[in-house]
C-alpha cells in the first residue's frame, strides 16, 4: 500500500527512532528554493540527532513514507501538486496524482505506517471568522482520532487561537508545552493562552506518549515548542502583517483550502521575508525536539 523507504522500514523494524515530516509546508507553505532547503535542513537535523527522517507525500497515487532528496526537490518545484488533506487521499490515490500532505493527511499515513512522532511548523486550526465560514482545519479532527504525536511551534495568529484550544479540549487532545506554560504563537513565544500541561524533558514526553498508547486512549498528542527567543518576530510587525493579509483575503473572496497557503504567502511578502526566516528556524528547532522524543520513546518501548 505504501512505498516505504528501505532505511525507514529497517529502522521501524529494529525499533530505532523515526521522525515523520509533512509536504504541504514544502509545496504550499513556502516559496522555492527556501522550501526545499528547509525540508532538507530539517531532515539533516533529525539525522544529526540520531534519528531517521521520513518526509511524506503522494507520488503518482502512491503514498511515500520517506521521500528521497530528489523527490523533495520536485515537491518544492512542481506546480501541479495538490494540497492533500484526509478527504483528498482516496481520489489522489485512484487518479494517480501527486499530493502534498497536510498535517491531517500526514498523520493518517504515518499512523498506518506505525510512526509515532511527526514534526511540522504549525498546525491548522479554527480560523478567525469561523462564525461565518465554519472553517475548521481537518488537522484538529485528525488529532482526535489518529495515534500520532505532533510537534509544532503552536499555531499562527492567522487562526482563532482560543477557539482552537477549545476545540482540542472538546476532542480530547492533550496540548503540551515544552518548557513553557503558555501556548506559543508560532512567530512568537507568547499568545497569552495556557497549554494544558508544561513538560520539561523529551523523556517525560515519551512517558506521556507511552501511557496514552498502553492505555488505548486513542488519538494524537500536540506538543508545542516555542520558537527560540533570538528568532522571534516583533509582535506589532507580525500582527499588522496578519491583519493586512486577512483583509486582503476577504476582499479577494478567498475560501476553503486556499485560505492557509494564501495567508502564509502574504504574511511572508508583507514582512519582506522576515516571517519566512522565523518559520525556517522554528521548523529546525522542532526537528531537534522531535528527534529527541523519538529516541526516548524507543528506549521505553
Ligand atoms: N500552518 C503553517 N504552515 C503550514 C500549514 C499550516 O504555519 O504549512 C499547512 C499544514 O500542512 C497544515 C495545513 O496541515 O497548512 C492546514 O491547512 P488547512 O487550514 O486548509 O487545513
Ligand atoms: Mn480550512
List its traits:
301 residues; alpha/beta; two-stranded parallel sheet; 13 helices; 48% helix; globular; binds pseudouridine-5'-monophosphate; binds manganese (II) ion
What does this structure look like?
- It is a single chain.
- With 301 residues, the protein is α/β, with parallel strands linked by helices.
- It has a single domain (3-300), classed as Indigoidine synthase fold (3-Layer(aba) Sandwich).
- It is built from 13 helices and 11 strands.
- It has helices at residues 6-13, 24-27, 34-48, 69-77, 89-94, 103-113, 130-133, 138-145, 161-170, 202-214, 235-252, 259-270, 274-300; strands at residues 3-4, 18-21, 52-59, 62-65, 82-84, 99-101, 117-119, 149-152, 175-178, 197-199, 221-224.
- The strands form 2 sheets. A 9-stranded mixed β-sheet has the order 1-4-3-2-7-8-11-9-10, sandwiched between helices.
- Helix 5 links the parallel strand 5 and strand 6 (99-101).
- Helix 3 (34-48) runs parallel beside helix 13 (274-300).
- The model has no long low-confidence stretch (mean pLDDT 97).
- The structure holds pseudouridine-5'-monophosphate and manganese (II) ion (MN).
- Pseudouridine-5'-monophosphate binds at residues 22, 24-25, 29, 85, 102-103, 121-124, 137-139, 156, 186, 257, 260, 264.
Amino acid at each position: 500500500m505504501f512505498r516505504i523507504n528501505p532505511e525507514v522500514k529497517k529502522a521501524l523494524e529494529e525499533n530505532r527512532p523515526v521522525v515523520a515530516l509533512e509536504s504541504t509546508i514544502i509545496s504550499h507553505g513556502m516559496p522555492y528554493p527556501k522550501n526545499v532547503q528547509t525540508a532538507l535542513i530539517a531532515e539533516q537535523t533529525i539525522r544529526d540527532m540520531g534519528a531517521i527522517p521520513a518526509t511524506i507525500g503522494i507520488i503518482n497515487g502512491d503514498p511515500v513514507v520517506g521521500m528521497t532528496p530528489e523527490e523533495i526537490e520536485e515537491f518544492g518545484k512542481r506546480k501541479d501538486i495538490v494540497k492533500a488533506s484526509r478527504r483528498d487521499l482516496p481520489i489522489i490515490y485512484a487518479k494517480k496524482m501527486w499530493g502534498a500532505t497536510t498535517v491531517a493527511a500526514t498523520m493518517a499515513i504515518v499512523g498506518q505506517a506505525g510512526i509515532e512522532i511527526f514534526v511540522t511548523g504549525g498546525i491548522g486550526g479554527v480560523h478567525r471568522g469561523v462564525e461565518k465560514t465554519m472553517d475548521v482545519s481537518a488537522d484538529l479532527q485528525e488529532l482526535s482520532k489518529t495515534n500520532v504525536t505532533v510537534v509544532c511551534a503552536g499555531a499562527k495568529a492567522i487562526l482563532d487561537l482560543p477557539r482552537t484550544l477549545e476545540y482540542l479540549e472538546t476532542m480530547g487532545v492533550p496540548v503540551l508545552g515544552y518548557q513553557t506554560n503558555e501556548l506559543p504563537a508560532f512567530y512568537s513565544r507568547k499568545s497569552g493562552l495556557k497549554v494544558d500541561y508544561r513538560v520539561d524533558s523529551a523523556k517525560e514526553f515519551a512517558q506521556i506518549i507511552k501511557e496514552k498508547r498502553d492505555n488505548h486512549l486513542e488519538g494524537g498528542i500536540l506538543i508545542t515548542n516555542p520558537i527560540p527567543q533570538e528568532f522571534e518576530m516583533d509582535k506589532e510587525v507580525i500582527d499588522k502583517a496578519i491583519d493586512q493579509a486577512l483583509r486582503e483575503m476577504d476582499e479577494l473572496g478567498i475560501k476553503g483550502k486556499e485560505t492557509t497557503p494564501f495567508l502564509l504567502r502574504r504574511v511572508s511578502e508583507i514582512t519582506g521575508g522576515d516571517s519566512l526566516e522565523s518559520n525556517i528556524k522554528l521548523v529546525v528547532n522542532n526537528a531537534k525536539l522531535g528527534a529527541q522524543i523519538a529516541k526516548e520513546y524507543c528506549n521505553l518501548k
